[in-house]
Amino acid sequence: MSPSLRPVLLVTGLSGAGKASILRTLEDLGFETVDNPPVTILQELVGDGDAPLAIGVDARSRGFDAAALLAELAALRALPGLAASLVFATAEEPVLLRRFSETRRRHPLAPGGPLGSRVTEGIAREAALLAPLREAADWVVDTSDLPLPELRRLIERRFRPDRALGLAIGIVSFGFPKGLPREADLVWDVRFLRNPHYDPALRPMSGRDAPVARFVESDVAFTPFWDRMTGMMELLLPRYAAEGKKYLTIAIGCTGGRHRSVLVAERLASHLSSIGWRVDLIHRDLAAHPATGGGASVAGQEALAHSS
């Protein structure tokens, strides 16, 4: 895809999942933003401009209909000079319930009745209404465990206007006890490698430190694994790009998300960048370790709770 194409993002998702925060971040990146216009005027909004454009659309939009929105998206994709994408924000129901409870906002699709049941029913109605959009989205971002600062960084990494278009690869290191990254397309489990955690000298370090790297790479299984993993990636990535896939997240997990997964993620990001791929790297659980600083930002999570 030519880098001269104008980005046009349709941003939708569940109420309380962070759509407004995504739009504000895109605006800070230089996107023109419009929230909740009538679905029928989307092509008119695109107009003849050349600035990146982000349009927020949800169940409150006048004339909203999922099938109609998908038809409009198809029409935008057919226009010359545009690169139109659909972004869907979601979160787990308990998280959405907590956010509505903290902000005391009414869910836009909630019926009458006791507060808790109203919000629960509204979430279920909206999820069913938006299901075709989630299925068709180019990128689904789950904000359940995502502090607002990290959501902003994620948006910035993916949608900075100065970045070339094409397949964007995200590499995420993580620890299995906290669960798989929700956005993962491919998952590599590296818990079979020697664990530096059991060496008292290496335990405080991370996979970014040379002694840890030497320890893990000295495992007799490391080199065969590395050769096969990188060979598989070099086979798959061009095929994904040829099929028009815009985003691919590769998750690499170990027991704590601090040593083995961090090392392999760092090496894979460097390798893929060196052969021309556009790569972003996140160490999801590394910052949660006391030696590296604090974990999730409570203030950021509270701010996200106030966004739609």
From TrEMBL:
Which residues of this UniProt protein bind GTP?
D58, A59, R60, S61
Specify the species.
Falsiroseomonas oleicola
**Record's keyword annotation contains Amino-acid biosynthesis:** no
| Name listed for the protein in its UniProt record | RNase adapter RapZ
This protein's source sits in the domain of life called Bacteria
* HAMAP family, A to Z: RapZ_like (MF_00636)
Which residues belong to any copy of the RapZ C-terminal domain?
168-286
Q: What is the lineage of its organism?
A: Bacteria, Pseudomonadati, Pseudomonadota, Alphaproteobacteria, Acetobacterales
> What does the entry list as the binding residues for ATP?
G13, L14, S15, G16, A17, G18, K19, A20
Q: Which residues form a coiled coil?
A: none
What does the UniProt keyword field contain?
ATP-binding, GTP-binding, Nucleotide-binding
RapZ-like N-terminal domain: residues covered: 8-162
Q: Does the keyword Nucleotide-binding apply?
A: yes
Q: What InterPro entries does the annotation carry? A: RapZ-like (IPR005337), RapZ-like_N (IPR053930), RapZ_C (IPR053931)
